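Lay summary. Proteins are chains of building blocks that fold into shapes, and those shapes determine what they do. In this project we predict the shape from the chain. Here is one chain we studied, written as its sequence of building blocks.
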Amino acid sequence: MNRQHFKSALSLVFAITTITRLVSPISAQAQTVLAPIKISENQRYFMAKGKPFFWLGDTGWLLLSKLKREQAEQYLENRHKLGFNVIQVMVVHDNKEINAYGDSALVNKKINTPHVTSGSTFGKGDEYDYWDHMDWIIKLAASKGMYMALVPVWGSVIKATKVNATDGAAYAEFLAKRFRDNSNIIWLNGGDIRGSDFTDTWEAIGNALRKNDPDHLITFHPFGRTQSSKWFHDSSWLDFNSFQSGHRTYAQDTDKKDLNYGEDNWRYVQADYAKTPVKPTLDAEPSYENIPYGLHDVKLPKWNAADLRRYAYWSVFAGAAGFTYGDNDVMQFHLPTDKSSAYGSTTYWEQGIEAPGAQQMRYLKKLIESHPYFERVPDQSLIASGQGEKYDRLLATRGKKYAYIYTYTGRVMLIDASKLDGKMIKANWVNPRTGLVTTIGVFPKGKSMKFNPPGAQKNGNDWVLLLDAI
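And here is the predicted shape, written in a compact code that computers can read:
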């Protein structure tokens, strides 16, 4: 090789190395294609390629704006290993939004003018501009088999800047066209706001998303203690319902604008379940682990793992198509460099992702997936007597040959198993804290079968009674 050829070859190697560094390791995974999430044939649940898809979400709200790529990799890998398959994130949380690399989302804080650099296509330009960084994270999630539930613009931005329907639709069109080729997209219109506020704008965003991205599901993330079905159940763009049950205790839930369900998040499911046309529903934001009761008074006790398990099992057994978990430190990605934190967060997100509630959510998913999925229905008639109130409430669900009954307090259950097939019943205890299954025994099927959970009756001694017909 002569000197000129050597210099040319060296230049080519340098160019390839430079491009590789710019594109980063995710480029090798950029072609990951996940099966799109669809509504099941009975309209109650989700599926992918005709197989059950149990939505186990996490509120990683500020993922796009606060984490750099190596941090995003750490977070998503943790959630992937714990069985989470949906990450809920805000695309624009503030009209001054910038990402961890200092790039702005918008031009002059205008929602209808996204700040897009000349190299805006993934892998072909400035990889750290706001929208290219978002591309990168969406593809990273896909490579781990995870879906991204994207809130286009948080409700507070719409209220503060009075975004009208025209500008909202223009922004939604940009988002839909920019990201619709990703297989792992779900749209969460709204964002902690009542649908009665700027209704025309939310309808315009929903319609624009549907028109420009007909292949991905759309819902609406509402204000606390409200549900999307109150305003948008009949909207053509709304594929499934969401509600936000958090973050107040029974005593704190006194707002006369809302339904005052308190901590009974199963009531939102019950209300949506009765509506027509039939659509799936789920709790998209319960009370977060490690956040104060009612959010704002940091001197109050904090919600813990047991509370999150209660919200999860109550809502799913009531008929929900999944559940979204949340942790105070993680949802805001509390960093050591932050000048302050929200809602009394004192732990950084790296420690927050190890919270016990997050570890325990996988046991619910595993249980629900262990039996025939699409035939499952809520059925309180399984409880022969004493359904209970507040923390003593029992929630029951069943298929043709199985049933699950959840108790938060570990109290005695009287169960009517007459609806299940067969003459004999195999009974097991499932521990929501560990996922361990303990056999109780095999019994003749009866209309008033008594089961006494292990341990003393108290809040947080929760158990699932699993009955299998023989």
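What the prediction tells us: Residues 31-369 form a domain with the TIM Barrel fold (CATH 3.20.20.80).
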